[in-house]
Amino acid sequence: MTSWQTEARVEKRRGRGIRAAAWAGLALALSACTTAGTPSVEAIRLDQNQGSEQNIASLTAAIDAAPNDAEGYNVRGTAYGRAGNYQAALADFDRAIQINPNFPQAYANRALVQRQIGQPLKAVEDYSAAIQIDPNYAAAYVGRGNVYRLANQNADALRDFQRAIDLKTTDPRAFHNRGLLYQIDGQHRQAIEDFSTAISLEASAPEPYSGRGVSYLALGDEENALADFNAALKLDDRRAEFWANQALVYERQGQRDRAVRSFSRAAQIDPKYKPATDGLARLRGQA
């Protein structure tokens, strides 16, 4: 998984340290000029050492020294999440909230784990609790908005992303996710603006390039679409949808051999990826 296949903004108290931003699962499956989101579960991402046994042991020692410090449980919970120990992470966030019921970051972090284990309704409850405590908590609006978006509650999702943007968030997920909603609604120029903003905030993430390429292609701008798909592949060449999107441009341009190679690469990465298998069948039928 790339960072954009995950949504993970693990929070401590603001201004005090660990913040690891990743991105919501936003893989684009392009068929002709339409897209379909095929998100995966999210995962908490921190520095690679955050989930280590050594780090968790150190955090446990800190908790033993200050057992009533909600912050300590919140930080260790993120480390457990990074290590994939979601039950331990939930237990730590529960304890942090028990100690300090007005700890919005602990609610938001627990929401991430709830989504990870397939509990979106509980995730919404936790994000909403965080927002009730801190109405200006932009990251919680982004997180809740993405849960809504994945549930096809697009009006609610758009409202949350817009609220985060109105709060002057620098979180690129807000713009990328709003761009996806504009794209679904056929508002491709607005989508391109949002994808471009997301890129300006996080140039190393491939998904906004792919998303922008989809909208460029929908507007008939094959040159910019291809440039964006190529940029996405340069950042991550292990994503079937990026290869399939590139193949579609080649197919439109009449470059059959290149299209076949790109569709084949997509199918090799994911043999069940339908846009790739359909593209191959279509081109081979023309042979």
Keywords:
two-stranded antiparallel ribbon; Tetratricopeptide repeat protein; mainly alpha; single chain; Serine Threonine Protein Phosphatase 5, Tetratricopeptide repeat; 287 residues
List the helices and strands and how they pair.
Blueprint: E1 9-11, E2 19-21, E3 28-31, E4 34-37, H1 53-65, H2 70-83, H3 86-99, H4 104-116, H5 120-133, H6 138-150, H7 154-166, H8 172-184, H9 188-201, H10 207-218, H11 222-235, H12 240-252, H13 256-269, H14 274-285
Antiparallel strand pairs: 1-2, 3-4
Protein name: Tetratricopeptide repeat protein
Characterization of the model:
The protein is mostly helical and 287 residues long. The chain has one domain: Tetratricopeptide repeat domain (Serine Threonine Protein Phosphatase 5, Tetratricopeptide repeat, Alpha Horseshoe), CATH 1.25.40.10. It has helices at 53-65, 70-83, 86-99, 104-116, 120-133, 138-150, 154-166, 172-184, 188-201, 207-218, 222-235, 240-252, 256-269, 274-285, and strands at 9-11, 19-21, 28-31, 34-37. A two-stranded antiparallel sheet has the order 1-2. It is elongated. It starts with 8 loop residues before the first strand and ends with a helix. Mean pLDDT is 85; it is low at 1-48.
